[in-house]
Amino acid sequence: MPEMPEVQGLVDFMNDRVVGLEVTKATVTNIAALKTYDPPLDALVGARVEGARRHGKFLDLATARPDGGSPHLVFHLAKAGWLRWYEQVPSTVIRPGKSPIALRIGFDDGSGFDLTEAGTKKSLAVYVVRDAVDVPGIARLGPDPLDATFTRDTLAGLLEGRRTQIKGVLRDQTIIAGVGNAYSDEILHAARMSPYALAAALGDDEVTRLYEAMRHTLTDAVAAASGRPPADLKDAKRRGMSVHGRRGEACPVCGDEVRSVFFADNSLEYCPTCQTGGKLLADRRLSRLLK
């Protein structure tokens, strides 16, 4: 799943490549992906791109029309979505239901992009709105952990009283925006913290450690994504992971074997030596530590 660093990489790419271009084509081929109808999708045609920005894991492409309208194209790539960039958009006609392509956008210099989604479970979401906050998911977002106003005390306040596991807190977009399954694994590994630790039970030193791990992990990942074209962002993400997606490999810090806990539709990875005092975490469905 694309998370904050990859979406920020896409935002940086868009700001370098499409600002000032006119939208000449806006075609949806998976109607279920389009979540709004007013303004209509074709309100984008004839509009010029003013800039891109990120809201959590949402990408917001702001435009301006000659008639004074300012529609925003906002999308969330969900678990299996991606942006495929073209210097020259293909002229082939996309057949609805016969392609992973959900949306195609073309610009007046011939370039453009597709939003694609692999697999059978379709969660990619596209919105055309007058203001980004009209998207319900954006309106509900918690603070961005890389914002200058997000301090150690901000994090402490968000954790206070939450009798839930820290892994789930980090992934909850209404609490902290932009962190998903992969980077929550990386943050907790860097913080030397069990994913099952209760948020409200963290001591002052642990909160400080978590805050520093979050800022450093995400800052480094955003820097690694910066300047890369969309086609390179996924591989860059995988290469930068210490534990996520590395089950069975050696922890780069201590050399212990990276372990997994499996859920219905995903998994988490952790290092027992670095994070759980050598204990192996049971499958979450058992909701306990192995004795």
Explain briefly what this protein structure is.
With 291 residues, the chain is an alpha+beta fold.
Verbal overview:
- Belongs to the FPG family.
- Residues 242-276 form the FPG-type domain.
- Keywords: DNA damage, DNA repair, DNA-binding, Glycosidase, Hydrolase, Lyase, Metal-binding, Multifunctional enzyme, Zinc, Zinc-finger.
- Residues 2-114 form the Formamidopyrimidine-DNA glycosylase catalytic domain.
- The structure is a single chain.
- The chain is of the alpha+beta class.
- It folds into 2 domains: 4-139, N-terminal domain of MutM-like DNA repair proteins (Alpha-Beta Barrel); 152-275, Orthogonal Bundle (Helicase, Ruva Protein, domain 3), CATH 1.10.8.
- It contains 8 helices and 10 strands.
- The protein has a 4-stranded antiparallel beta sheet with strand order 1-6-7-5, with no helix packed on it.
- Helix 1 (4-17) packs parallel to helix 6 (204-225), helix 1 runs antiparallel to helix 7 and helix 5 packs across helix 6.
- The mean pLDDT is 94.
Span between termini: 33 Å
Q: Indicate the percent of residues in helices.
A: 25-40%
Query: How many helix segments?
Result: 8
CATH superfamily of the largest domain: MutM-like, N-terminal
Give a quick set of tags describing it:
single chain; 291 residues; alpha+beta; N-terminal domain of MutM-like DNA repair proteins; Helicase, Ruva Protein, domain 3; 2 domains; 4-stranded antiparallel β-sheet; 8 helices; 10 strands; 27% helix; lyase activity; Znf_DNA_glyclase/AP_lyase; damaged DNA binding; DNA damage; Formamidopyrimidine-DNA glycosylase
